[in-house]
Amino acid sequence: MSKVQVMDHPLIQHKISYIRSEEVGSKEFREIVGEIASLMCYEATRDLKLEDVRIKTPICEMVGKQLSGKKLAVVPILRAGLGMVDGMLNMIPSAKVGHIGLYRDPETYEPVEYYCKLPSDCDEREVFVVDPMLATGGSCVAALQMLKEKGVKHMRFMCIIAAPEGVKRLQEAHPDVDIYIGALDDHLNEHKYIVPGLGDAGDRIFGTK
Ligand code: PRP
Ligand code: URA
């Protein structure tokens, strides 16, 4: 079964509480989503492998550490996942970026695919799939399935807010994918929105409604 890590870092908790408020406008919402993504990326990359590297500083030679193992990629689920990309790249600037376009049908709540463009070597990379919201889990489960069909073998999923229903569905469908969550909320409402949540993440990031 996959690992589920709910972030307990005080800065992450503080920033998530801040953006939940309906008073926060798009500019600030977008900026803070980026900051949260950076902090979550920092936490979720704790176990990346290191190797020794010989360095000559201006003072002397030394053996330091550098990242080894698989190269990284970030794949946002459009649209709202885009809000997390720059924050991720602030931490892992050499990662490549793919895109998966999915929206949730407002009547059936099932995901509808409309786009997929991935780095050509994504099957050799460790892929961080990002989306601020994990509600029913339908979008994430479909995105991970699309990636697996393209040959991706190593994935992690990162979201800012999750509902227990989505976590369960995701773990059942993809037990090999570790899940990093900023805040685990209470439940879904009758429209499959996360309660208490923060509303529609895509609309709040892009100022649409
Ligand atoms: C939101 C969110 C997730 C999805 C979560 O996207 O960003 O992708 O809903 O819901 P689920 O877990 O029930 O599938 P939305 O469909 O609103 O599209 P958008 O990002 O283009 O606004
Ligand atoms: N998508 C969102 O943006 N918010 C929710 O609460 C559920 C799905």
From TrEMBL:
Binding positions for uracil per the UniProt entry: 194, 199-201
Recorded GO CC terms: cytoplasm
Cofactor: Mg(2+)
Domain of life: Bacteria
Catalysed transformations (reactions): UMP + diphosphate = 5-phospho-alpha-D-ribose 1-diphosphate + uracil
Enzyme class, spelled out: transferase
InterPro entries in UniProt: PRTase-like (IPR029057), PRTase_dom (IPR000836), Upp_B (IPR034332), UPRT (IPR005765), UPRTase/APRTase (IPR050054)
Cofactor mode of binding and number, as noted: Binds 1 Mg(2+) ion per subunit. The magnesium is bound as Mg-PRPP.
Record carries keyword Magnesium: yes
Annotated 5-phospho-alpha-D-ribose 1-diphosphate binding sites: 79, 104, 131-139, 200
Regulation of catalytic or functional activity: Allosterically activated by GTP.
Domain Phosphoribosyltransferase: 6-208
Any GO MF annotation of the entry: uracil phosphoribosyltransferase activity
One Pfam family per UniProt: UPRTase
SUPFAM superfamilies assigned to the protein according to its UniProt record, in alphabetical order: PRTase-like
Any single biological process term in GO: uracil salvage
Transmembrane segments: none
Family: Belongs to the UPRTase family.
Name listed for the protein in its UniProt record: Uracil phosphoribosyltransferase
Protein source organism: Dorea longicatena
